[in-house]
UniProtKB/TrEMBL annotation:
<feature type="transmembrane region" description="Helical">
    <location>
        <begin position="165"/>
        <end position="187"/>
    </location>
</feature>
<keyword id="KW-1003">Cell membrane</keyword>
<feature type="transmembrane region" description="Helical">
    <location>
        <begin position="48"/>
        <end position="66"/>
    </location>
</feature>
<protein>
    <submittedName>
        <fullName>DHA2 family efflux MFS transporter permease subunit</fullName>
    </submittedName>
</protein>
<dbReference type="InterPro" id="IPR004638">
    <property type="entry name" value="EmrB-like"/>
</dbReference>
<feature type="domain" description="Major facilitator superfamily (MFS) profile">
    <location>
        <begin position="12"/>
        <end position="467"/>
    </location>
</feature>
<feature type="transmembrane region" description="Helical">
    <location>
        <begin position="366"/>
        <end position="386"/>
    </location>
</feature>
<feature type="transmembrane region" description="Helical">
    <location>
        <begin position="304"/>
        <end position="322"/>
    </location>
</feature>
<keyword id="KW-0813">Transport</keyword>
<keyword id="KW-1133">Transmembrane helix</keyword>
<dbReference type="InterPro" id="IPR036259">
    <property type="entry name" value="MFS_trans_sf"/>
</dbReference>
<feature type="transmembrane region" description="Helical">
    <location>
        <begin position="440"/>
        <end position="462"/>
    </location>
</feature>
<keyword id="KW-0812">Transmembrane</keyword>
<feature type="transmembrane region" description="Helical">
    <location>
        <begin position="199"/>
        <end position="219"/>
    </location>
</feature>
<keyword id="KW-0472">Membrane</keyword>
<feature type="transmembrane region" description="Helical">
    <location>
        <begin position="398"/>
        <end position="420"/>
    </location>
</feature>
<feature type="transmembrane region" description="Helical">
    <location>
        <begin position="103"/>
        <end position="128"/>
    </location>
</feature>
């Protein structure tokens, strides 16, 4: 019986990771296909950005609410519901015949992605209560999360060139159906604690509107600028709504987000570390591809292949070593070591020359970043979930996913804008375009290094309340 139970747990993890991979792939696979989508459906340049934004806004805005719904209604039920919505929306995206249909379908897809992914980490923690098994499971989950972006970039190019852009969405259908059937078969059902324990409708409206508005503000920064009335106004409104939500949670009899969760220094600190780390890594993924293409002259395929060392080293560490490291040394020391390696990689990229050789100048930085991220992320997720009770694990999982999305959106916007601004300044001062671009990317990598250094300092100060 014990062998059957162990086998069932790992099959459940496989189903959860398949759902995770499908959702993460969809966040990156679209980027490569955007020119083909624009040519086929007639998008304007400004409208094309909303193929991505229409997904990101509901995804980032609904994670916290979806995580709490998992605790109230049962995480398996919520996961399967989100997976079904995501799969159906993928069909509509693949069959879209106009910009309007695609944008609405992408919004629905973002809703399904948020609902299903918000509860996954909570289910993994519940499935694997034993520390060593949990560390292994988190290592597998971290690898799927981290490598999904690189796989998506390659898959998007292959599908778009060999078939058509429609297939970047339609490929989700067989994966989604198979994942749904496997999850329905192997995941343990649970009743949840009931809506009466946390059906805070006003709180749900406040936090969802605040997060959606915040993500919208961030993704529109590139169009309006950080100091514009649009950015400042909508940003202030998002903060006001979030403040109202926190006040409501302090007073509500059955709050959506019990503030005791944020009262845990370990959970709060780990989530703040994740915002800084994901911001730096998302910015790195965006800027390094531009550096490889626009400064070193790589084509899109070679640039994509150049990112593989990151994915391979993440897999080697997170699947092979991270569980043993976390079990032997504890999550905080392992997190500190991983962040130190990432910081070294960012510093190396900030010094890469305009005539860099891949083996001598680029590959070492990629390996530092991959090994560091593969080391840091399982430890960070273990810390972030360390104080989660069975009743709150879905909400804590949703919180972890929310901070990751906010960090990614912030990192992409901040580093991209700062790098572009620095490039424009150098170009206007008379530097050739290639040198100006290099200076902009160096500045972006330096800002990424500063973010990682701040995460490293915060991690050194973390004191876990207990071993997770």
């Amino acid at each position: 019986m014990e062998t059957l139970a162990v086998r069932s747990r790992w099959l459940s993890l496989a189903a959860l990771c398949a759902g995770t991979l499908m959702i993460i792939l969809d966040q990156t696979v679209v980027n490569v296909a955007l020119p083909a989508i624009a040519g086929d459906l007639g998008f304007t340049p400004s409208g094309l950005a909303w193929v991505v934004n229409a997904y990101l806004i509901p995804f980032g805005g609904l994670l916290l609410l979806a995580g709490r719904l998992g605790d109230l209604l049962g995480r398996k039920r919520v996961f399967l519901s989100g997976l079904a919505v995501f799969t159906v929306a993928s069909v509509l995206c693949g069959l879209a015949w106009s910009p309007e249909v695609l944008l609405v379908s992408r919004f629905v897809q973002g809703v399904g992605g948020a609902v299903s992914s918000a509860v996954i980490l909570g289910m993994i923690v519940t499935l694997f209560p034993e520390p060593r098994e949990r560390a292994k499971a988190l290592g597998v989950f971290s690898f799927v999360q981290a490598s999904g972006g690189s796989i998506g970039a390659l898959a998007g190019g292959v599908l778009t060139q060999s078939a058509s852009w429609h297939w970047i969405f339609l490929i989700n259908v067989p994966i989604g159906v198979a994942t749904f059937l496997a999850a329905a078969r192997f995941l343990d059902g649970e009743r949840g604690i009931g809506l009466g324990r946390g059906a805070d409708v006003l709180g749900a409206a406040l936090v969802t509107s605040s997060l959606m508005l915040g993500v919208y503000t961030i993704v529109e920064v590139e169009s309006h600028g950080w100091g514009s009335a649009h950015t400042l106004g909508f940003g202030a409104l998002s903060v006001a709504l979030l403040t109202g939500f926190l006040v409501r949670q302090a007073r509500a009899a059955n709050p959506l987000l019990p503030l005791r969760i944020l009262g845990s220094r370990t959970v709060a600190g780990a989530n703040l570390v994740q915002v800084l780390l994901i911001a730096a890594m998302f910015g790195f993924q965006f800027l390094v591809v531009l550096y490889l293409q626009r400064v070193l002259g790589y084509d899109s395929m070679r640039a994509g292949l150049s990112m593989l060392p990151v994915a391979v080293s993440i897999g080697a560490i997170s699947l092979g070593l991270s569980a043993r490291l976390n079990t032997r040394f504890g999550e905080r020391p392992v997190l500190v070591a991983g962040l130190a390696l990432i910081l070294a990689g960012m510093v190396l990229l900030g010094r890469a020359p305009a005539d860099a050789g891949f083996l001598a100048d680029v590959l070492p930085a990629m390996l530092f970043l991959g090994v560091g991220f593969g080391t840091a992320m399982p430890a960070l997720m273990g810390l972030a979930m360390s104080d989660a009770t069975p009743e709150d694990s879905g909400l804590t999982s949703g919180l972890v996913n929310t901070t990751a999305q906010v960090g990614g959106a912030l990192g992409l916007s901040v580093l991209a804008v700062l790098a572009a601004t620095r490039t424009a300044t150098l170009s206007s001062s008379g530097q050739p375009l290639r040198e100006a671009l290099l200076g902009g990317y160096h500045f972006g990598f330096t800002i990424g290094a500063v973010l990682v250094a701040a995460a490293l300092a915060l991690s050194v100060a973390l004191r876990p309340t207990r071993r997770s």
